[in-house]
Amino acid sequence: MTAAVSSKRLFFAIWPQKKIRERLERSRKDYCPHIGRWTPAENLHVTLVFLGNVAVRLIPSIEAAVSGIDARAFNLDLDWLRTAPGKGMVWLAPKEVPNELLELVDALKSSLEGLDLEIEKRAYRPHLTLIRKLPAPFEPREIEPIPWPVRSFTLVESRPSRGASEYLRARIWRLRG
Ligand code: 2AM
User: Fold this and answer.
1) Please, what are the domains in the chain?
2) How far is the CA of 36 from the centre of ligand 1 (A)?
3) Residue 11 in contact with residue 157, Cβ under 8 Å?
4) If you measure from the C-alpha of residue 34 to the centroid of ligand 1, how many angstroms do you get, rounded to a whole number?
5) Residue 156 CB: number of other CB atoms within 10 A?
6) By the 8 A CB rule, do 16 and 44 touch?
7) 127 CA distance to ligand 1 middle (Å)
8) CA 131 → CA 6, 29, 43, 100, 166, distances in Å?
9) Of residues 44, 136, 43, the one with CA closest to residue 88
10) Residue of minimum CA distance from atom 9 in ligand 1
């Protein structure tokens, strides 16, 4: 008999369209020739708000709370390959963070207040993790921008697995415009 699931690991994210995932996939070797552990193309995303382990009974309230968000669609230019020294990670990030993205993150956090969740208090730094466990040093650099029209956000469940995490997009909300 399987035990009932009482909590899920959840986060809000924006998820690139297939065309952008394919472009990222094609550019991998140009970005970084080292091997490391590449994020599978279908897992590439930018986290908006990380919720961590959440009691399943809270999920309907979370979905209801964010359904009232009226945030604008925006364009995100991924143009900066960054790294954390010593951590073996390579991220793609926007050099300029659009206001609409910050507004969306603020709107999510405000709508979730009072729901008994532990939400990240640190400053928000949008990034898309490309590589983990990079074996060699890596110099951050600018790249030709990858323009990403962001038209929706999504609630994601992260399921640990032996290889890369498995991400299930539970719900998707459209942005205005
Ligand atoms: P990362 O790519 O920088 O590891 C699923 O794990 C997503 O949530 C990833 O985008 C991951 O960011 C992010 N994440 C994991 N733990 C987090 C934490 N404690 N705070 C904020 N984001 C986190």
Assistant:
1) 8-174 (3.90.1140.10)
2) 18
3) no
4) 23
5) 25
6) yes
7) 10
8) 31, 11, 12, 27, 16
9) 136
10) 47
Tokens 């969306």 appear where? Answer: 104
CB atoms within 10 A of CB 32: 19
The whole-number pLDDT of residue 2 equals 58
Task: List, chain by chain if needed, residues with CB within 6 Å of any ligand 1 atom.
Answer: 11, 47, 50, 120, 129, 158
Residue 98 buriedness (CB in 10 A; 0-12 / 13-18 / 19+): middle
Angstrom distance (rounded) from CA 127 to CA 113: 24
- Burial of 116: CB neighbours in 10 Å, binned 0-12, 13-18, 19+: exposed
Q: pTM of the full predicted structure?
A: 0.94
**21-59 pLDDT tens trace:** 999 998 888 888 777 889 999 999 999 999 999 999 999
